[in-house]
Design a protein that fits this description.
- The protein has 129 residues and is mainly alpha-helical.
- The protein folds into two domains: 85 residues, no CATH class; 37 residues, no CATH class.
- It has six helices and two strands, in the order H-E-H-H-E-H-H-H.
- It has a two-stranded parallel sheet.
- Helix 1 runs parallel beside helix 2.
- The longest helix has 22 residues.
- It starts with 10 loop residues before the first helix and ends with a helix.
Length: 129
């Protein structure tokens, strides 16, 4: 497992899903700011997004019976720091980020049409609402 996407950017969703599906006690802990290497999302968001989403979809498939049985939600205990801390700002090349999104959207449009409802993937349908 440590040679897979889980060990890169999917560890948070993997740990959370396994804790939930194994009926561990769950809480929220404010440990302060989690700092990654500060990078422009337009440079590295693609691989990170693929790794997290791949991990999420693998876990959804593995735990299908558990998540389909879920009805509702509940609050969990909170521990840790009382003060909310903000991470250092990251300089973002917004133009590049938008271009990367548009390129990916065009590339995967047919996939989005297969798996998402029209309101999600069709901007015109959303504008009409």
């Amino acid at each position: 497992m440590w040679e897979t996407d889980v060990a890169r950017y999917g560890i948070d969703v993997w740990m959370t899903t396994n804790a939930i599906t194994n009926n561990f006690k769950i809480c929220q802990s404010n440990l302060g700011v989690k700092s990654h290497d500060a990078k422009d999302p337009a440079e590295s968001l693609g691989p990170m997004f693929r790794q997290v989403v791949h991990t999420l979809f693998v876990l959804m498939e593995q735990h299908e019976s558990e998540w389909k049985a879920v009805r509702g939600s509940r609050t969990v205990p909170m521990f840790g720091l009382k003060k909310v801390m903000e991470p250092d700002p990251i300089k973002v090349d917004l133009g590049r980020l938008v271009n990367e999104f548009k390129t990916g959207f065009r590339q995967f449009r047919s996939l989005y049409q297969d798996i998402l409802c029209i309101q999600v993937w069709d901007g015109k349908a959303r504008e009409k609402r």
